Amino acid sequence: MKDSLIIALDFPNKGQVFEFLEPFGNEQLFVKVGMELFYAEGSSIIEELKKRNHKIFLDLKLHDIPNTVKSAMKVLAGMGCDLVNVHAAGGSEMMAAAIEGLEAGTPAGLKRPDCIAVTQLTSTSEIQVHSEQLIGVSLHESVLNYAALSQKSGLDGVVCSPHEASLIHGQLGVEFMTVTPGIRPAESALQDQKRSATPEFARKQGISAIVVGRPITRAANPLESYLAINNEWKGVYQ
Ligand code: C5P
Fold it and tell me: How far is the CA of 158 from the centre of ligand 1 (A)?
């Protein structure tokens, strides 16, 4: 998990996924399956990616009553995902139930999937925190509060912005994972990520894993782009 580059497979169907993966040959990748792909293809996409030996982050951001989340996590653990997530806003009981469900669903002798929490979505603004969620502290303080609550509830880390990771590691330790989307190579367009950062910045912040979508999936040469971003992330300069 540590130092992983996770490719966001934001495609509408498995035909496009496997066409995209073709040039990577037998390289073992860490891939993220989100709602669009999972809702379109169901658990068969997980089975097929696992058959090809890829590691899987199933990004479904669960948020429901504790019992429902526990039952759902039991099913996801049985699929053999490596990383799953919930919304911290679901509360400490819900997060603890998620871990219980993962433990119950993991086949004997195997390690349960890691579980991380979304604190505040990176699309949420300071204004929304105050005027819609009626939270009286700053966005950063709310993120830190949710991160600490996630840790206390037994989770392994959080999804956060690259700009919040060092604050979180400073308060909660370097072992608590920070997984950050919004990564863009310096020369690439920002697309709709507002608070983006480069892979080099992410490494210097001590971020545990980065999630990269369009700079790889929409590149003219995805394999070349993946290798360049991964080198910058790992600090390998030719
Ligand atoms: O294409 P791009 O690199 O922006 O993709 C980022 C991925 O990370 C997308 O799959 C998006 O849904 C996800 N994500 C995000 N911001 C969050 C959580 C997840 O961009 N806060």
Answer: 14
Which protein residues are within 6 Å of ligand 1, measured from CB? 8, 10, 34, 121-122, 159, 181-182, 191, 193, 211-214
- Reduce the DSSP state of residue 202 to 3 states and report it: helix
Phi, psi (deg, nearest 5) at residue 138: -70, 165
Helix axes 43-51, 66-79, angle to 10 degrees: 30
Predicted TM-score of the model (pTM):
0.94
The tens digit of pLDDT for each residue in 169-225 reads 999 999 999 999 999 987 665 556 666 899 999 999 999 999 999 999 999 999 999
Q: What is the largest CA-CA distance in the chain?
A: 51
- For the chain, which residues make up each domain, given as ranges? 4-234
Specify the CATH class of 4-234 in words. Answer: alpha beta
Instruction: For residue range 54-70, list pLDDT tens digits in order.
Output: 999 999 999 999 999 99
Cα distances from 85 to residues 119, 142, 149, 151, in angstroms, run: 11, 18, 14, 13
What is the rounded distance in angstroms from the CA atom of residue 157 to the CA atom of residue 118?
Answer: 9
